[in-house]
């Protein structure tokens, strides 16, 4: 069974709300205080606030800091975060990197040129490390977030009056499911959007699981038509990866030169295909042939279908929409005995599955003369040693 954390953004999500929900779930407040102290920011303290939203008891965190705080870029923020434990620092850095990309796009500058205002303030740093610290404490195998409710209207900030959802929020939530909110008010802040879009493995409905505990966080804004809360639900279960829509393009060939096929398939992959393959088959009149299969995102369907017609001898293609489910994975780089090597890593049923990248195995095998299986074993052993030291 896998540990599943479900973020129920029933009333929106903000960093202080999410941190409060984890405290209500059981994450010790003393652990948050240690992380804040480790930042080394003079005069900065954090306290736990108890709230009531429409009869629902909840919590949030409040940051107490000197009134004059400098605007900081992502480099300065990452320097402050560098003193934290790796299991907190790494995710927190990814959150701020994502925010800098979104803010840079909004303002037409590079991520390095972004000087955070609200999202770079001390309270946002505390909100981010609180959520990352709570996740490091829980160690979930899967984090799933509900569709996010987006309010309309306007909000005043350092740049002036902005429409809601804030432009940075829209950028951060590209690809995430959203729904309309009943009132004109800010329901999802940039920090909240950055946290869930960076740290959640998928978005969707509450997965099938056995609930073990839950916590509720509340916002500073008073509730009106609906409670201003976010809930975190912790449980155990088996969860299928998120279903994603894909397009499969197929064609049958009986006059394609076989030696050209590897080049054609490679061209499909470089053009953005998710997968490209070929299989032998017998066609009409008993003629041997090939079935070429290319899968891609729906947005690339027309482009990829045209490419298949251009690069093969086919006179027509079949286009089918279907679903694709993939286990969440990541690429990590390890210092192997033969230099840097990449490893594809995923977690299935609570166990890590590691597979060194074939291109790196091939390169090292050619350079050293070692058998591929020996290179793979050496890379995996190096990764295990690297993680034990961390």
Automatic annotation (TrEMBL):
GO molecular-function terms, A-Z: lyase activity; nickel cation binding
Keyword Lyase: yes
Keyword field contains Acetylation: no
Pfam families cross-referenced by the UniProt entry: Ni_insertion
UniProt keywords, alphabetically: Lyase, Nickel
Stored InterPro entries: Ni_insertion
Similarity-based family: Belongs to the LarC family.
NCBIfam families in the record: nickel pincer cofactor biosynthesis protein LarC
Name listed for the protein in its UniProt record: Putative nickel insertion protein
Native source species: Dethiosulfatarculus sandiegensis
Record lineage: Bacteria, Pseudomonadati, Thermodesulfobacteriota, Desulfarculia, Desulfarculales
């Amino acid at each position: 069974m896998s540990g599943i954390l479900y973020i129920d953004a029933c009333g929106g999500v903000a960093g202080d709300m999410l941190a409060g929900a984890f405290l209500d779930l059981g994450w010790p407040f003393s652990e948050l205080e240690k992380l804040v102290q480790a930042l080394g920011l003079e005069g900065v303290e954090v306290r736990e606030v108890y709230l009531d939203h429409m009869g629902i008891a909840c919590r949030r965190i409040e940051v107490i800091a000197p009134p004059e705080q400098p605007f900081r870029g992502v480099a300065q923020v990452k320097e402050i975060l560098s003193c934290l434990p790796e299991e907190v620092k790494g995710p927190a850095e990814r959150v701020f990197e994502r925010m800098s990309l979104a803010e840079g796009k909004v303002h037409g500058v590079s991520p390095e040129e972004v000087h955070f205002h609200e999202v770079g303030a001390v309270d946002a740093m505390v909100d981010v490390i609180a959520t990352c610290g709570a996740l490091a404490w829980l160690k979930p195998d899967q984090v799933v977030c509900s569709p996010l409710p987006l309010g309309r209207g306007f909000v005043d900030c350092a740049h002036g009056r902005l429409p809601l959802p804030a432009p940075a929020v829209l950028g951060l939530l590209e690809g995430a499911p959203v729904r309309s909110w009943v009132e004109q008010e800010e329901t999802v802040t940039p920090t909240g959007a950055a946290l869930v879009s960076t740290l959640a493995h998928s978005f969707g409905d509450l997965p099938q699981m056995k609930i073990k505990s839950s916590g509720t966080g509340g916002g500073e804004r008073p509730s009106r038509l609906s409670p201003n809360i976010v809930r975190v639900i912790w449980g155990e279960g088996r969860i299928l990866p998120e279903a994603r829509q894909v397009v499969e393009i197929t064609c049958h060939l009986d006059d394609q030169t076989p030696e050209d096929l590897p080049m054609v398939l490679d061209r499909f992959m470089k053009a953005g295909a998710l997968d490209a393959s070929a299989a032998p088959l017998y066609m009409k009149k008993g003629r041997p042939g090939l079935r070429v299969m290319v899968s891609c995102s729906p947005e690339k369907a027309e482009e990829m279908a045209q490419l298949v017609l251009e690069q093969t001898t086919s006179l027509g293609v079949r286009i089918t929409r279907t679903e694709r489910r993939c286990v969440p994975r990541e690429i990590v780089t390890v210092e192997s005995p033969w230099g840097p090597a990449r490893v594809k890593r995923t977690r299935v049923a609570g166990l890590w599955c590691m597979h060194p990248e074939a291109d790196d195995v091939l390169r090292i095998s050619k350079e050293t003369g070692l058998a591929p299986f020996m290179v793979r074993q050496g890379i995996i052993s190096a990764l295990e040693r690297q993680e034990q030291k961390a």
